[in-house]
Amino acid sequence: MRLTYTLSFIILSLFFLSSCKTSTKPSEGNDIEILDLPDIIEKGELKILTMYSSVDYFKYRGQNMGLQYELSKQFANSLGVNLKVLVANSESELTEKLLKGEADLIAYNLPITKSLKDSLEYCGVEVQTHQVLIQQNIKGKEPIKDVTELIGKEIYVQPGKYYDRLLNLNEELGGGLIIHKIDTDSITLEDLITQVAEGKIEYTVADNSIAQLNKTYYPNLNIKLSISFDQKSSWAINKNTPKLKEAIDNWYQNNNQSPQYKASLKRYFEISKNSYIHSPIQSIEKGIISPYDQYFKVHAQSIDWDWRLLASLAYTESNFNKSVVSWAGAVGLMQLMPRTARAMGIPAGKEMDVNENIKGAVKYIGLTEQSFIQIKDKSERIKFVLASYNAGMGHVFDAMALAEKYEKNKYVWFDNVENYILLKSNREYFSDPVCKYGYFRGIETYNFVRDITARYEIYKQKVPI
User: Fold this and answer.
1) Residue limits of the Solute-binding protein family 3/N-terminal domain (predicted)?
2) Are the C-beta atoms of 212 and 224 separated by less than 8 Å?
3) What pLDDT is stored for residue 12 in this prediction?
4) N or C: which end of the chain has fewer CB within 10 A?
């Protein structure tokens, strides 16, 4: 009787222990381990898979950004765990890596398909994705409101899904679309959208989320016309993680109206990315650039810069508005990211103080310049420093590596490295093994350096040192 009782106790204990553990452990010859929620919490880390893009995930001025990154971070914080980001280069790679147990969650709008429902569990918010026509709103001209109106019109797209969709649409309409496949590797999707905004071409095509983001840069765009069917998409997890699915679904239901969640959506799809109206400085003829010239003169000396160059940088960053906060959270006259401000020793609460803001920016510039000391010509080195100030050093290093790979001078900015910062929004380039920092909207940095250096030349002519 005592032996029977002891055996029963052991069996019950083993059953209890096995039922408490939720992970699918690797068997012999199988190294896949799928972790459910209790294991993730015990480990203290949530691993997500996503893709580099202007919407989902990217690095900006040394800081992780992107809608999917921010929402994932909010979910990880709700669990009290750290977030680790892994990047895939395609949707098929996302699912492949998840099913191999390399991550816990695909934080990306993955299309919901029957073929994947046997192995994946879709969770969180379900969104509708589709392709849209991008055109200009022109006063006095009616925009195209129906796909039949595209017959006889010229549409410029890159190879791939956008081109394929237009070919199918052309068949559905019985022909008549004039489709230009831009297969040069030096033209990115952002380039095409910019060309539409500037009136250089009339039409291009993009996913609705990318189009919505770009409208925050170019308010004159019209993105209302859908040219494809809606595709449902959402986050995805392994089929064998029911507790994780429940946690994600509950988090979304309880937080999708929270200020933090709404702020993330607003940051990427509503807030203007060109919020500063740059107007001429009326007093420049009197030898005054801004109300803060004395600060520029004092602090520029510590890095051996012309104070007029520092003033040109500040003008581009903030239009000399000491209280401005950018869409990305950069603050003050010199638009320092909060983490950079802290690292440069700016006291908490003093981020917008003009003297502290300029002093912190100059310290950061000095440290950045040391990272490009191999560029012997100081005037040339300054261009790389300006580019890094805008983009973050990592993206500039990537552009230098690409320039070297394609036999351009990696120590010369204009017409050399600047061309490759532009191409960092092209998957073929940012996924190159020589690149370490992924996607970047390089057109902003390209224009940033050119604008500052051109204005500096004007300042040198009109304002005494």
Assistant:
1) 45-272
2) no
3) 36
4) N
